[in-house]
């Protein structure tokens, strides 16, 4: 999954753009490198903390270590917005389609359409290949609404996780 863009020389430790601007973000994806693991693990801890605390599951060490243990630069892309590290996403091939994992955006770029833009790009690729995309989201997470807007439906759930699937061509990937 090589998604190099003109941003492929951007350092991942640069700060994400400031929140509060209505100006559209200039964004792209670049292939992750092993050196990106720590900045991505830190972003994961920041983004997941409120939901994990609400669910009584936040552990300062474990939230980062789980990312380190499953990090796959081969299947991960770094989201770059306005020339700075803004997030990441992993799309892992599976026997029955693809798994969307570790989709995190820096708080400063959330709510500005970047998540939808990245998701549309990834879903177009899956649709072109005719494969479903699956993911897990934490119960009560605002991210669930984003996924539902893009055609994901609940497959199963428990007190912590909601498993969702999107069949090829489902939903409003043009949203």
- Secondary-structure content class: alpha+beta
Morphology: globular
| Low-confidence regions | 1-17
Portion of residues in beta strands equals 25-35%
Strand tally, please? Answer: 7
Please summarize the sheet with the most strands: 7 strands, mixed
Treating each run of at least 4 consecutive H or I residues as one helix, how many helices? 4
Helical content, roughly? 25-40%
Describe the structure.
The chain has 175 residues and is of the alpha+beta class. It is 29% helix and 27% strand. It is built from four helices and seven strands. A seven-stranded mixed sheet has the order 1-2-3-4-5-7-6, with helices on both faces. Strand 6 (153-157) and strand 7 (161-166) form a beta hairpin. The longest helix is centred in the N-terminal third of the chain and has 18 residues, at 37-54. The protein is globular. Mean pLDDT is 88; it is low at 1-17.
Give the helices and strands, then pairings.
Blueprint: E1 27-31, H1 37-54, H2 62-70, E2 76-81, E3 84-94, E4 97-105, H3 114-129, E5 133-138, H4 143-149, E6 153-157, E7 161-166
Summarize the structure.
The protein is of the alpha+beta class and 175 residues long. The protein has helices at 37-54, 62-70, 114-129, 143-149, and strands at residues 27-31, 76-81, 84-94, 97-105, 133-138, 153-157, 161-166.
């Amino acid at each position: 999954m090589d998604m190099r863009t003109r941003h492929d020389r951007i350092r991942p430790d640069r700060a994400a753009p400031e929140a509060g601007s209505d100006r559209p973000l200039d964004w792209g994806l670049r292939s992750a490198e092993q050196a990106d693991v720590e900045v991505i693990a830190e972003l994961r801890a920041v983004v997941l903390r409120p939901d994990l605390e609400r669910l009584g599951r936040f552990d300062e060490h474990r939230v980062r270590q789980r990312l380190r243990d499953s990090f796959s630069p081969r299947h991960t892309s770094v989201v770059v917005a306005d020339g700075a590290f803004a997030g990441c996403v992993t799309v892992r091939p599976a026997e029955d389609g693809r798994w969307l994992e570790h989709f995190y955006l820096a708080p400063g770029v959330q709510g500005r359409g970047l998540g939808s833009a990245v998701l549309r790009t990834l879903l177009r690729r899956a649709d072109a290949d005719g494969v479903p995309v699956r993911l897990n989201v934490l119960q009560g997470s605002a991210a669930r609404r984003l996924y539902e807007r893009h055609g994901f439906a609940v497959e199963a759930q428990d007190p912590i996780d909601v498993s969702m699937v999107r069949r090829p061509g489902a939903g409003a990937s043009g949203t």
